[in-house]
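Need residues for this backbone.
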């Protein structure tokens, strides 16, 4: 793989607008009528959210592979309807943009759900 060019500079203020937090994936369900989407129920410490992620084609068994794991999520995106489901954030994965089979961005050890990145 050849790394993509680095994107244009942004300010620290721009970066500070993105709210990335640790959450534990409690449940993974298939999204009906979609060959790539799954619905994740994610615990963020003080609340739970539904996050829709396109990982069906990238993993043999998304439920077995990610359920119970902590990962990073963008939590301040506007809710978005995808295949009839409302997603309340975005899974922050590594590799998709470079056409590499994505992996979860995970903390090196267990930390409290809701902990902010940055």
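Answer:
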């Amino acid at each position: 793989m050849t790394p993509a060019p680095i994107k244009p500079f942004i300010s620290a203020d721009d970066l500070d607008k993105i709210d990335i937090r640790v959450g534990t994936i409690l449940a993974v369900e298939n999204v009906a009528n979609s060959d790539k989407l799954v619905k994740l129920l994610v615990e963020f410490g003080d609340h739970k959210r539904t996050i829709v992620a396109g990982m069906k084609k990238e993993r043999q068994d998304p439920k077995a592979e990610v359920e119970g794991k902590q990962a990073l999520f963008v939590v301040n995106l506007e809710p978005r309807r995808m295949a009839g489901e409302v997603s309340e954030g975005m899974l922050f994965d590594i590799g998709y943009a470079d056409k590499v089979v994505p992996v979860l961005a995970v903390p090196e050890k267990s930390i409290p759900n809701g902990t902010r990145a940055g």
